[in-house]
Design brief:
This protein is 38% helix and 15% strand. The chain is α/β, with parallel strands linked by helices. The relative contact order is 0.16.
């Protein structure tokens, strides 16, 4: 396996070493959360349906050795337990694992875990130190609690789509931003709950809703409305207020820059473009002036940028927030991504040697866990039952014959 990039002085164990996680999540938000917990050293057991597993296992195009890219993206360094929680034997296994589990993560629709008898109310008295994270579309309470929801729908309902794209029509972002932000917030919430438990000895439930996260992400755009009562206007590749922030065509390719402050705009005009007159021009002197006269300013800048190749402009702009517009492959194969260890290799039991996107976390004293490949369905079922619950081979074979568990060694 390829170890993640680690600071030279990082000699302490991964920060979540010893923490045990039972993971009932699938798709993106929950699996991204538990993957980051695993990177930080937590022992994550992913509970999957014995027949098909995580829904993303069936999203196989493109795939490597039959393993779908979607599943590979969010399930590194976990163990897969293929088990049917609807059976009495399956529930008994899970209750046994919960005896020494610190964190349970689930992202079923509200009510599903209750049908399994594994909802927080059913578990909290028996396992008072358990931290129980529920991720759902609209939360465990409120008028929409029982509705399903996926990232693009939440982008639409939260107002995010109204901010994205050219003036007409609204557009969703291609990446699952709501799921991703929710997964990262889930990590923060779990770490905070672990700290609170260390102080109080008490576990608790965390109710995390994709809709809440989408609304929270509105940030300055939300305050634009709350302060003015006006809907922020879509600005395409530009910005609702910051100017000049936009894509500009150099002689041989596009550049993107974000230079909304007077200081940055002045540096662009004086140091890069050698046009100090653009700083003193009354149309462009202050941010509000530049916003009001945005079309004139963009036309001037576009004409200037088209006179030289992109690399020449970017050398001049190294001290400014500006960069080339890349394809995904160009970004992942770039020198800076390689230097930071953001693409790593792991040896998968079915797909062979594959590349994965690494963890962005870097600690000065603590290591990250050495990356392990995403598991095959039920890959660790027997080992988990033997090592953590003391089941012998005969009992494991009997459970497999009854369809309670699946997978191999």
């Amino acid at each position: 396996m390829t170890a993640p990039e680690t600071a030279a002085g990082a000699t302490l164990p991964p920060p979540l070493s010893g923490i045990k996680v039972l993971d009932f999540s699938r798709i993106i938000a929950g699996p991204l959360c538990t993957q980051q917990l695993a990177d930080m050293g937590a022992d994550v057991v992913k509970v999957e349906n014995p027949d098909a597993g995580d829904d993303t296992r069936r999203m196989t195009t493109p795939s490597i050795g039959g393993e779908g890219h979607f599943f590979l993206a969010f399930n590194r360094s976990k163990q897969s337990l293929a088990l049917d929680p609807r059976t009495e034997d399956g529930k008994a296994i899970l209750l046994g694992l919960l005896e020494d589990t610190d964190v349970l993560v689930e992202n079923y629709r509200p009510g599903v875990m209750k049908r399994f008898g594994l909802d927080y109310e059913s578990l909290k008295d028996r396992f008072p130190k358990l931290i129980y994270l529920s991720v759902s579309a609209y939360g465990q309470t409120g008028p929409m609690w029982d509705r399903p929801g996926f990232d693009p729908v939440l982008q639409a309902e939260s107002g995010m789509m109204s901010l994205t794209g050219e003036p007409d029509p609204p557009m969703r972002h291609a990446l699952s931003l709501v799921d991703t932000m929710t997964g990262l917030q889930a990590v923060a919430a779990i770490c905070a709950a672990l700290l609170a438990r260390a102080q109080s000895g008490q576990g608790q439930r965390i109710d995390l809703a994709l809709m809440d996260m989408a609304v929270a992400s509105l940030g300055n755009a939300g305050l634009f409305y709350l302060c003015s009562g006006d809907q922020p206007k879509r600005a395409g590749n530009s910005h609702m207020t910051s100017t000049p922030t936009n894509l500009f065509q150099a002689a041989d390719g596009p550049i993107y820059m974000a230079l909304g402050t007077n200081r940055l705009y002045g540096m662009l005009c004086r140091d890069v473009l050698e046009r100090p007159d653009l700083v003193d021009d009354p149309r462009f002197r202050e941010p509000a002036d530049r916003l009001q006269h945005r079309p004139e300013l963009f036309a001037i800048l576009e004409e200037i940028f088209r006179t030289k190749p992109r690399d020449e402009w970017l050398k001049r702009m190294r001290h400014l927030p500006a960069g080339p517009v890349r394809m995904v492959g160009e970004a992942l194969e770039s020198e800076e991504v390689a230097a930071r260890g953001m693409v790593a290799e792991v040896e998968h039991p079915k797909a062979g040697r594959i590349r994965v996107i690494g963890s962005p976390l870097n600690f000065s004293a603590s290591k990250l866990r050495e990356y392990q490949p995403p598991p095959t369905l039920g890959q660790h079922t027997a080992a988990i039952l033997r090592d953590r619950l003391g089941y012998d081979d005969a009992k494991i074979d009997d459970l497999r014959a009854k369809g309670v568990i699946g997978g191999g060694e």
